[in-house]
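hi! just following up on the protien thing from before. the input was this:
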Amino acid sequence: MHNFGFSEEGQSGSIGDFRLWQRVLVYCRDQVAALAGAVALSLVLTVASLALPRLMQLGIDGYIVNSTVEETARIAGLGQIALWYGLLVTVVFLATFCQVVVLEWIGQVIMHRLRQHLFVHLLTLDLGYFHSQPAGRLVTRLTNDIQNMHEMFTSVMVTLFNDGLKLAGIFWFLFLMNWRLAMVMAVFIPLAVVVTVIFSRFAREKSRSIRSQLAKLNSFLAESLAGVAVIQSFGGQSRISVTHGGLTQEYQERNFGLIKIFGTFMPLTELMSSTAVALIIWYGGGEVIRRQLTIGELAAFISYMRLFFQPLRELSQKYSIVQSAMASAERIFQTLDTPSAIRETIPSGEAAPATPDDQGRIEFHGVHFAYQPDQPILIDINLSVSPGETVALVGTTGAGKSTLISLLVRFYDPVDGIVLVDGLDVRRQPLGELRRRVGIIMQDIFILPDTVRANIILDQPDDPARLKQIIADTGLNSFVDRLPDGLETRIGEGALNLSLGEKQLLSFVRALYRNPAILVLDEATASIDTESENMLEAAIAVGFQGRTSLVIAHRLSTIRRVDRIVVMDHGRIVEQGSHEELMGRDSLYRALVRLDGQGKGP
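and the predicted 3d structure came back as:
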């Protein structure tokens, strides 16, 4: 069962959740060598960085203030110190560069795998899931949440090791030079930890509210852009703009809240750093006067304390990044753990039943269905369609016609009852095979940004001879000949845009290319021009031959050639018969025909 009450706010994703860490680290399994290289670079980077203040101390004590050494030797010694200093700076630069490249490469590989895994899983979920989840929220999963994970891999995982190593190294050097002054500096550790924890807690809450608002904004944008034609037609730009402005204003204010937290924490950290330096100058200066500390050691102490607060600042920020990434990971894995409600229900240990012959027999027995428990859509549907028979489903909007087709191809499963295709329960047939055997031509056509040929073939083997024969048999040569490059014409976003009628023609060829035993037309000619409708009608006449066909149409003039008409009303089958039979009595169908303006009959 889907979690229809899912909320962005409810996903915390604790850093201490080892279950989450285990799942995250699964995606790093084949990157162990690269991660080890990044860790090795961390060691080099830390050692080189911490050696710089030590070099400064040696330069000051050994040559600058040491009057016992000759001037020439002092200058030469400072030159050597400067050379080593420059060499270490170069090492730091190269190690940082290599580490950034390695981490970015690791992050990109891992995120590509995770994004692909998530997208492929989404494609397997049932339609009920997508009806319960705003499109913007799913886009946020594939973009912002993945990006949060990427940032953790590239700037946190190894960098946290860097910072921890650097802090340990700083204290080791401090205690090595003067343990008394190091103990004085240790007073700042609890204070720094408390400030960091408080900051991280506030930052986490603000970050979570920002992500929640971003998901709402993405959902609104997706819905608005999808309905831009309706918005423009009804002059709704101003109202939509106001709503969008409110959402973005709230998003901006939440971001400002996070900025204020950072704006408080950073100066506070700098204040602690400056206080520590002042304390070092006061206490360390006294040690220098008492000859318990050299001037070089005092300068090194000051440099190390400046370095000490840098990792603390970064650790607090990275804590927030990790917290955000863990929240994103929890949402991503929740999506990955969401099972499809539509699965092949073959009991464990039982062999899959043999695929039935493509006869095209359809049976509905006692079928009940509801999208919501208290709102039945189909009620006690009993219907049989013989192989080769053409049946029209008619009725007012909401009668349940399209839902019946959705059950046939298992977009949904009935609440009660059974649907059979060629005598076998559709729930016990492989989904791919079932949907190959039932070809559907819908009113809304999906166009892949690719060639016309690729849009027709999709996942089927390329058979040019078969494709050519289908186009010839259905009389759609003129449609293909009008295209600039024939079947190799690129269509979709950024290429040639097809009209609605041309898309319907393409979808018809796409369905026939799979050689289905059952052909379903769901409002296929509802909104196309007369020329395209005539071409499609001619193609349909050929396509119906030798196939079981179901036709759903509001325009009753499009069902002239059917063998039987099934009339639905409020989820029930209320009438069946030929056109003449239904028109010969006081039937709902006759009333629908009159409303359709076809009083002389379709």
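The CA atoms of residues 161 and 573 lie 68 Å apart.
The chain has a mean pLDDT of 81.
cheers
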